[in-house]
Amino acid sequence: MTGTLRFTGKEFFSDESDSALSEESLPFQTSIWQVLKRQVRLYTMGESSSLPKETVEELFASICFLIDLGAAPKGKEQPLQMKNTNAEELFERGKKRAEWEVRRGKRLWKTACMSAPKISNRSLFDTLQGIGAFWKQYDVRFFAHQIPCYIDYQLMNPVPESLSGICYLNEYLHCLLIENRFLLHFDVEQIERLLQVVEPDYQELLINLTEPVLVQALGLSILKKEPYVLDFLPQEQEQLQLYLQPLSKKEMRQVLSDAVLWLCRSLKIEGNDDRAYFLKAAQNALPRLSAACCAKELQNLFPHIT
How much is the pTM? Predict the structure, then answer.
């Protein structure tokens, strides 16, 4: 049997039949309990095998996380197969991978701090500061699945809830860097003028700084206008209304996708991850665009700011 593995914390699943799985997975699941027993001994420094149920559950969740990480393909590697796979081996492999991710995460965090927009926003500042404490508090050895820091700043596209531990944090930082790079294309004062119109209390509220800029730039890109200005003149609002009014939602979705690509070319954004991220954010904005267009209130979505 050579089915691809996926550990969920209770058992492995494969693309083979359940009956075949139950026979071959038993030794593996037994080895998982051996890993747990060892972790309990290490956690108590051999003084006791008795721990609160909640602590044992957290230790087990950490083991599951590291085994998942150890089984996951990296780069061009092939997924690991169930045959001849040992939980201890995957656990140790996952721990090394987590340690590597921590080193990568520190670099991402430092870059995120240096590239953060020079715009006052409490949640962004507090989040970056809080992540700074993560590196001292994160426990790869026993609680690798946890995220020991507060992350208040909202991204345009939330990180999948399926991620945890250092994997969640690194994906968050990766997305934050995409947003930071985007904002660097625009004048800070112009961004602040836009934010002041969209949300006057932007400095204190839990809002995303990038989304209003992206939406404004996309509106200008639909009209093939200069995106850097971040301003919609009244006649441009009317022009956009006339252009979008007869479109179906499917057609409007395509217009947004085309606008993202045009905007990326205009700003010389070449990264595939960046383009995919903005495409997703643009599609998330589709309901608001459609509603504003139907209500003939595009000026609320694409404001005149000067």
Answer: 0.88
